[in-house]
Each structure stands twice: as C-alpha cells, then as structure tokens.
Design goal:
The structure holds 2 protein chains of 2 kinds. By secondary structure, chain A is an alpha/beta fold. Helix content of chain A is 37%, strand content 18%. In chain A, the strands form 6 sheets. Chain A has a 7-stranded mixed beta sheet, with helices on both faces. Chain A has a 5-stranded mixed beta sheet with strand order 9-11-10-13-14, with helices on both faces. A 5-stranded parallel beta sheet of chain A has the order 15-16-17-19-18, with helices on both faces. Helices cover 38% and strands 23% of the residues of chain B. Classes of the chains: A alpha/beta, B alpha/beta.
Chain lengths: 618, 190
C-alpha cells in the first residue's frame, strides 16, 4: 500500500528490517528523523538512543558491531567531524556484525554550518560510501549497506542530502519487523581491535584495502551503479547520487530545446569505491562526458584518472572546467545544461528577474517567549550598564538556538565555530589581551556534547571569563530531542538518570556560579554585571524551559496587556525584544495573544510602564 | 499528468499542512508524489517552503526556477520571492496576509504591497488570483481556506475535485469538521 514516508524514516525502517539491534546518534538537521521516527516505539530487543555526542554514538554502535550485532549510527555532516577521530580507527579494525553510518550533507546550506562533503571522509578512510538519491533508495540502499558491511566485515557509510533526507514520497514499503535478538559474539582479537604498534596498524591498513577491493567487486556484481550505453553515442552524462533523480526531467528539458543525439548515461551511487568498470566502459565509448555532481567533484576526478590511465583524451564537462560550481545545490536545470553541452548544443540560459530587492529579509530569530531572548537582552543591558559599548565586549556564540543572538535586534554574539567552541574561544580572546569582559554563551545540549572540556580548561588555567549556559531543557533547533539534562518526567524511561548541569558546574571547581531565570531581566543583568567584575571563571546557568515545548503543554505564564493610554509608540519594546508576538498597527503596539506566552520580557523593556504583566491564576 | 506545486509562507500558517493534505489526496488516488518541506529552524515566524511534485516519476525534490505549474503563497512578502519559480503562463494564488519581520515593521526594510506581487507575476504571464483575508468569514483554518481557493482557481482542479480535497481535510482533522467545512466553503466562493 502506498504511504507517505520521508528519506530519514525510510533509513530507520530499513535498518530495523535489516536486523539492526543498536541504533545511536546525535540530533542534527537534516538527519534527526531517523532516530526521531523510532522514538517512543515499542521495539523489543532494539536499543535506540540519542547519545551525548556523535563520537560517543559511533563508538557505541561500533563496539556493538564488534560483538556481532548489526548497528546503525546517524548524524549530520558536522557530526562526522566530531566522530571522525574514532571512525578512522574503527574502519581500520572492521567489524564482525555490520556497521552502517548514516550521514547527511546539506548542499546549498538550508540548515547552517559549512557546506562540506562527507564523501571526502570516506575516501580518507577507504570505506565504501553509498549515495542515496530518493526515498526508495534510502530504504533499499540502507538495506544494501548492511548486507555489504556484513559481507566485507567493514563499516559502510550511507550518505544522504537534505532534499532526500527530508522529502516525503508515496512509496510502497514493508512494515517494520525488528529482528530476533542475536546473542553477542565476543571476539578477543588484539591485532584487529587495538592500534598498539606499527605492525598492527600497517596490517590493518592492508586488510582494509583488500576489503575495499572486495566491496568494489561486489558493488559491480550487484549492479549498484546503473550504466546505460546508447548505440552510437559519443556523448556521455554521469549523474551522481541525487542528481540521478533529476535525469529524466533534465533530459526532457534538454529535448525541449531540440533533438538530442544519442547519449549514454551512468548513475553513480558509490563514490568510494568508484565504479571503475562502468566509468571505463563510458570512457571507451565517449569523446565527451558531462558530470553532474553536487558538492565536490570526486566522481569527476575518478573519471579523469581513469581516462588518463586509459590514454583517452575525453573532453570533460563539470566543475574543473567551471561549467558548474562547487557551491550550492543542483537540480533538473543542471542536468539539462550538462546534457546539452555534452551534445554540443548551446545550453538554455533562461533569465529570471530577481524579485528579492523589494522584499524584507526574514532573519532567523527566536520565537515568542523564548527564554534565550532574556539572556541576549540581559547581556546587552549589562554591557551598557558596565559603561562599555557593544563592540567592546566579546560574546562568543555556540551551535543551536542559542546562536540566534547574532540576529537582529540583539546582534549580541560575535562567533560561531562548532559544538562547544564558545568557551575555549572566549579563553582565546582573553589570552589575546582583551581587557574588557569576555563572555561565552552555550546551550544545555551543546554544553554536554562538547562544552565541558573547554570549561575544565578555563578553570584549570583560571581564565577571566564568564560562561552563560542557556538551559532550556531540550535539544531544540534540531526538533526537540531529549538530552541528559532534560527533566526526568520527559526522559525516555524511568531508567534514564537525569544529569543536572547545576551539579556539574560546582564539581568542576567553578567558584562563582549562579542560577537565574532568564525571564527575570533585572536579576540576570545584575548577576552578569557582578560576574564581569570578578576575576576567574564565572558560570551563569540561565534556566527556563523552551517556549515551544511549554506551549505544547499549554503553559501560559501571564497575560500581557498594552495600556494604550501610556504607550507613546516609541517602539523600544519591539526594537529591544524583536518579539514576533509584538505587532505595530495604528500607531500603537499590540500583543498577539496567540503567540504570547506571557514571559513578560517586553514589560521590562518599556520605559513608560505601558506593558502590564498579569500573572495567570493557577 | 505531472504537476509541480511550489508553496511558500511563514512558520505557523500551516503551509506544510496544505502540502500534506495534497499528498494524502494523491495517495488516495494512487498518484506518485514527492513532497519536500523546508522550514527555518524550529521557530515560528520563519520562512517556510513546500515543494510538491505529483505525477508519474516525479523526479528529484527541487523544482527548478521557472518550473512550477502552480505557486501558492500564504504571505505577501514570500509570494514575491517565489515568482521566479513560476512557469511562463502558470497559476499563482496569493493570500493577502502580511507578516512583517521586525525591520519591516520599523520601516527599516522594504515590504511589497499586493500590486507589486501581481505586477511581478504578470511578467511571467501568470493566471493570477489574489485572495483577500476578509473572504474567510466565520472561522476555520486559513490554510484550509486557501487550499480550497487554490482548487477553485488553479490547475489543481484538473487533479482533484473539491470533494476529494475536503475528504482529505476531514480525515486529517476529524475534530474540526464544521469549522473547516466553513473555511473550505469560503474558499470555494472566492
């Protein structure tokens, strides 16, 4: 029966049906729904968990696969940067069950963080990487990855992209059937599972290269990379991963420009190992080959290498010649352009007038009632009250909703690097000789993920910084996942122990530690001012639940009313809070009660006492 | 027949729900489809886009510039940005709702009026429909109202009857049949 299912959900379904008994990951758009779709389901014998970070998640999945289990580990591309230290060692050891690593790239950057191509990691660690190009592929190729991993006894990466991971298609897939529990198999093999000594490492490398050769032969035998040689064609088109899904549409667009000569096509789904036989067959037949490949031209370069070794002077159209950019995503129009150029026809250069000049940019900002708003307003107020200008005080930012303090109207944050980087970055500014206060901001999940080592470093070296941990109880930007600090009532099961950040900070040796409610602007501001004057490491834990999550439980803290008689229409409340629940009409400010949760930070921004906060009677 | 539908709006308006209802109607009919939602983080008030491709072998998730048979816009500012995606001679339907970002509210950023959106659509020879917010009277979801108006005024009617779409609505929201019936009726009367 047809049903609508997303690429991520298809990966989860495929993994469970392939026999995965351990599924771990860390949230990251666009990969989060794999575990998200399994969350709360009764899957007897299958461990599904959000781990504290991607490296931890991978290590858990890998060790399970070393004990004979089938394991899946999921993350976004930036997560693989975190997990890579372990990945390369794990790949050198292989596995005894099966290990599939699912990673999503984000060509065109719809979710933030550097536009990178994780196939590069697969190349560096000589592990197979399979590109999925559709929801159906996400199912069949994830299953295939498990079977390949089991056959070569080595981990396999499945790489998706935002457009595949998040899109939903009407597909006919089997129901979810978890495998019967598989008893662990303990293999004590020091030469396989440790890295102690040159001989062990070199032998592992040799074994790895053999497993990659085996993968190449199997992938060819299994026909994973469909090649279609057209009779009499001297032109070829190579589509990589998702670009294959645009082949039919792109060729139809090209044909609308005129009759195309015969064209051979190759749909590459495995960048590592590249489908050498198929590439060579295409090179033998064609004088000109165009490659459509998002992100980095890895397959284009594999083609170039094979052509060179074959002594064939094939003309290549792709990224090296500047036809396509390494930046951004591609679509059917890119396929049409490639096909036309390969056929020696002029590409269609349609012109689309840019209409954005007359439009307002919709900056990413914090929601109505978001507790982070109170922190950004308090930092800005504290800086001013201490007699500094905004450009005098460095405030480092971190990953997640907390980074929205870079947006208008706050413009509070200066930097964003990677999970947990805010606290070490603050120390760097301190050591650079910055004499004004240096502040770091970080969310709860980010702090647990990667912030703790940086804070220990600050305490150890007694650096003069203030770190604000903005604890809203959830991992929010990725879609409201639980984390170790989430309230006990919302943990996966009563067996989960909540890890309270308020207990971690004093245990690290932080002497100046305070907990505030970020809705209380006056107290938060005053505490920050006091901390700025103290030497050493100061930590402020700003604690209030995410407004979206509280709204889902119908929590409204107060009624906010604007006294029209007192409102002078100075609009300071709008300018200071940027709250989407404040609207401006008929020379008055009004409150959109549908959005407002009564946090009341706008009341503290009004100089005329025109905004009234009335506590809701319980 | 293949149909590409490009939908835009702002988080909280229910743009993605319109797309999900069309997916449900497609599945009920046994039509292939692919739906690609894009939303700006977890926040309300951010840009939201839904790309829906219905028909045999709908292909990849993204609709190319100039590739949409229908553009459905729930917000005026986002409507103008979506115009380049419309096919020459395609259908465009715009709900007259204005959701001003803070800078536009303070007069620091431009914000298009309805005539600018229509003029831009005309450069693509669009079959253009403007839906004033006042036409929804007596409750029900704005998105359901616009879905109904889109069925009435765009090529959507070649794929789905009003009854089919309303059936998808009631199946999805069994508790709000009466209010959505009203919204749907208002949409048909636009």
């Amino acid at each position: 029966m047809l049903r609508s299912i997303s690429g991520n959900e298809a990966v989860a379904l495929a993994a469970v049906n392939a026999g995965a008994t351990v599924i771990t990951g860390y949230p990251g758009t666009p990969s989060s729904e794999v575990i998200g779709s399994l969350w709360g389901r009764e899957l007897s014998g299958v461990e599904v968990q959000w781990s504290t970070n991607e490296k931890v998640a991978l290590e858990i999945a890998a060790a399970s696969s070393w004990a004979g289990q089938y394991a899946l580990c999921t993350m976004k591309m930036s997560g693989l940067n975190v997990a890579y230290d372990s990945l390369i060692s794990i790949v050198y050891s292989g596995c005894t069950g099966a290990l599939v690593l699912y990673v999503c790239d984000d060509p065109g950057v719809s979710a933030g963080m550097p536009e990178q191509d994780v196939r590069g990691f697969a190349r560096m660690s000589d592990m197979p990487v399979i590109d999925v190009s559709s929801v159906e592929d996400s199912y069949t190729l994830t299953q295939y990855a498990f079977s390949l991993s089991a056959r070569i006894q080595s981990p396999v990466m499945v790489r998706s992209v935002t457009g595949v991971a998040l899109s939903h298609a009407a597909v006919d897939l089997p129901d979810m059937r978890p495998a019967l529990p598989r008893p662990p198999v303990l293999v004590k093999d020091i030469e396989k599972f440790t890295k102690a000594g040159a001989k062990i490492c070199v032998d592992q490398h040799a074994a790895l290269l053999i497993s990659l050769d085996t993968a190449q032969a199997l992938i060819h035998e299994d026909g994973v990379n469909p090649l279609s040689l057209a009779a009499g064609a001297v032109a070829g088109l190579v589509a990589v991963g998702i670009m294959g899904a645009y082949l039919d549409e792109g060729l139809a667009l090209a044909k609308a420009r005129g009759t195309l000569p015969p064209l051979s096509t190759l749909w590459v789904k495995t960048t590592v190992p590249p489908p050498v036989e198929e590439l060579r067959a295409l090179i033998s037949a064609c004088d000109i080959i165009a490659v459509v490949e998002e992100n980095e031209p890895y397959v284009e370069h594999a083609l170039l290498r094979e052509a060179f070794h074959m002594g064939r002077a094939v003309k290549l159209i792709g990224k090296d010649d500047g036809t396509f950019s390494r930046i951004g995503s591609m679509d059917a129009a890119s396929v049409a352009k490639a096909a036309l150029l390969a056929c020696g026809m002029p590409p269609a250069e349609a012109h689309y007038a840019d209409t954005t000049a007359h439009c307002a940019v919709r900056p990413i900002g914090v929601c109505a009632g978001c507790p982070h708003r109170g922190v950004f307003m308090s930092i800005n107020d504290a800086i001013k009250n201490l007699g500094y200008k905004k450009d005098d005080v460095v405030v480092t930012g971190d990953i997640g909703c907390t980074i929205l303090g870079m947006s208008p109207p706050f413009h509070t944050l200066w930097t964003e690097v990677s999970m947990g980087a805010s606290i070490p970055m603050a120390q760097g500014f301190y050591y650079a000789g910055v004499k004004t206060p240096v502040i770091a901001t970080i969310g709860d999940s980010t702090f647990i993920h990667g912030g703790i080592p940086g804070l220990i470093n600050a305490v150890w070296n007694n650096t003069d910084i203030t770190a604000i941990i903005m604890d809203n109880g959830w991992t929010c930007m990725t879609g409201m996942q639980v984390n170790p600090g989430t309230a006990s009532a919302f943990q996966r099961s009563p067996q989960n122990h909540r890890v309270d950040i308020a207990n971690i900070i004093p245990a690290l040796g932080v002497e100046h530690f305070a907990v505030v409610d970020p809705y209380d602007i006056a107290l938060t501001t005053k505490t920050l001012q006091d901390m700025a004057k103290l030497p050493g490491v100061k930590v402020l834990l700003a604690r209030r639940e995410c407004a979206i999550q509280a709204n889902r439980r119908k929590i409204k803290y107060a009624d906010i009313k604007v006294d029209a008689g007192k409102c002078t229409f100075c609009k300071l409340c709008v300018m200071k809070t940027g709250c989407p629940a404040l609207t401006v009409a008929n020379n008055k400010v009004a409150v959109d009660t549908k959005q407002c949760n009564g946090c009341g930070v706008c009341a503290s921004a009004c100089r005329f006492g025109a905004i009234k906060k009335q506590e809701v009677q319980a | 027949m293949n149909m590409n539908i490009f939908m835009v709006g702002v988080g909280g308006q229910g743009v993605l729900t319109i797309a999900e209802l069309l997916v449900a109607a497609s599945i009920a009919r046994g039509l292939d489809c692919i739906f690609y939602p894009t939303k700006g983080m977890a926040q309300r008030g951010g840009f939201v886009k839904a790309q829906l491709r219905i028909g045999e072998k709908p292909g990849g998730p993204d609709i190319s510039l100039g590739g949409a048979d229908i553009v459905i816009a729930m917000e005026q500012n986002e409507a103008l940005k979506a115009v380049p995606y419309l096919k020459q001679g395609g259908d465009m339907i715009v709900y007259g709702y204005r959701w001003l970002p803070t800078d536009a509210m303070l007069g620091r950023a431009p914000y298009p009026d309805a005539t600018q959106v229509e003029a831009a659509a005309q450069t693509r020879q669009a079959c253009y429909t403007y839906v004033p917010t006042e036409k929804l009277m007596g409750g029900g979801g704005e998105n359901i109202f616009l879905l109904s108006a889109s069925q009435k005024h765009t090529a959507l009617k070649e794929l789905f009857s009003a009854e089919e779409l309303f059936a998808a609505v009631t199946q999805r929201f069994p508790k709000f049949v009466e209010s959505n019936k009203n919204a749907f009726r208002c949409g048909q009367q636009v």
